[in-house]
Amino acid sequence: MTTAVDVEGLSFRYPGTQAGVHDATLSIAPGELVVCIGPSGCGKTTLLRLIAGFLVPDRGTIRLDGRDVSALPTRARECGVVFQSYALFPHMRVWENVAYPLRVRGVAPEERRRRALAMLDQVGLAGFADRLPAQLSGGQQQRVALGRALVFSPHALLLDEPLSALDAATRTTMRDEIRRIQREHGIASLLITHDQDEALSLADRIVVMRDGHIVQDAPPQTIYDAPADAFVANFVGRANLVDGVVTGPAAVDTSLGALVTREHALPAGAPLRLLIRPERIEIVDGTQGENALAARVLRDRFFGAARRVEVGVGQGRLEIETNARDTVQCIRIPRDAIQFLNDASNS
Amino acid sequence: MVASATRVDRVGPFAAEGRSRTANGAPFWGQRATPLLLSRAWGYKLPRWIARFYLAYLAIPIVLLVVGSVGELWLNTLLPTGFTLAWYMQVAADPSFRRAFTASLAVAAIACAACVLAGLPLAYAIFRARSKVVRSLARVVYQLPVALPPLVLAFGFILVFSSDTLPWLGSIWLLAAGHVVLGLPYFLQTVVADMQRLGLRTLEDAAESLGSSGIQRFVHVVLPSLRHSILSGLVIVAALSLGEFQFSNLVAGFLNRTYPVVLLQAFYGATGFACAATVVLLLLALAAAIAGGAVSGSASRLRGVAA
After folding, report:
1. In this predicted complex, what is the ipTM?
2. Residue A216 sits in a domain of what CATH number?
3. What is the pLDDT of residues A71-101, one digit of tens each?
4. How far is B141 from chain A (nearest CA, A)?
5. Which residues of chain B are within 8 Å of residue A148 when distances are taken between CB atoms?
């Protein structure tokens, strides 16, 4: 089975700067939704523009459905693109917008209209066919953009921060809609975002980028449970990062106190970075038990379903996420909630 | 408390609006302590009176022109005597005025056509230029004619085009060319600004990703999106051309004289005739303004904004 999108060793540098994409390798299987996430300027939009053909790479190859498209112009690549601003043609009606790719491919007018209307049904905009884009809301424009990008059955779907221009409520609805439509079409998709909730909930696989490099490429659960380094740990989900020194085969000394951890093969005295997710830390009554420590509450914030408490433990600080409402006096860190970063024995 | 609040609301310049305080509760202008000159009455009435005087200053000459164009006799009195439409008949019958009217329309039409043919690709090139330096430079260059006195342009044209190699002085094409130089900056400004407002680059990227070639993009997306600003720009160019005097007076040949040039001659004759002839030009300008308004109105509807 050929991969739908295959990027190998792709490099591009914006002239006069250090920004761009450096040696990116990525593949997307048919029907898979890959979300590329990273801070501003990390190169994720550049990667999308390279795959779409708006930029010519300095090095590397891009394959769509097994075909090498690195030298082909954008219009020959058969990639559907959804832009952040939707880029709907303002002078064309909604159905004409959706039918445009068919028009440039020489499809007959009646056939175009029929297929455009069918696509509008699919994206949930039946009845909006004769409106102008200016008369639609953000979410509706989004759906039109999606329909337009899919109507000609492209090899891949590329979405450039499609939800960032929407308000929070519409965003959640459209997230599910994009997923539904993408699954119905079974089309390989690459979605760019800086929102980790989007990434975690939508993706079959997440690609984390930083400074033009791909730092980790894995399913959401792996990214969350086993981040490649502190940057990924911090970027996806909230993280407590604690530095420590190995004191035994299953013990680490940290600023929080002495902790008992999983078995590891590191020598005594080796420095270590630990990751503890806030929701794994338990609130207990006393300091008996493994890894039970006294805590002083520094900040207590209520978020409705969850509560985030920042506590001082020993010489350090931890952030706890819990839905219990009781006062925090002691906390316990379960042994297997402690992950090691940058360490082979973690996997 | 409520009773005193309503009592206060009936006093002062904002009484009609029923307000004595701003929305956040702060008092307007301070209700008691301000000196007379800065009191509410003056602070509010003074700008209104300035506006009224200015509008009168603008309107009086135009009103007098219209009045003079239908007056039978006007000799050193405040207003003319008698009422007649004969002046308009005379203007309509005068052969040089008729020729000048059609010449003006022809020159305006040629100038508009040249602006579209030359100006549109130029605007596109300026918009698409990758280098910011090139774009800034281009902007300076194409806006230069705005600062250029038409008289200077006319002298230049006379110098260049009355030589043996380029003996074109007096032709209608040269006249129109001068009008293009004078009007193109406004056309370009309107169109380039609209390109930026539309996010034309992203629209073109979208069209490209959907499979269209360069020409298809231009015809399907660029031109239709820009049609309102192109029309607005052309209305500006036409209005400028119709009213242009300084350049046309020097460069137009005798048979190609545009309307404003011929109009100057009218003021050596009867006042009524001159007024009637000027009102004709005024009506042309009004027509251009209405056309401009109509274009921007339909453009606003397309954007989904209240016109």
Report:
1. 0.83
2. 3.40.50.300
3. 899 999 999 999 999 999 999 999 999 999 9
4. 27
5. 210
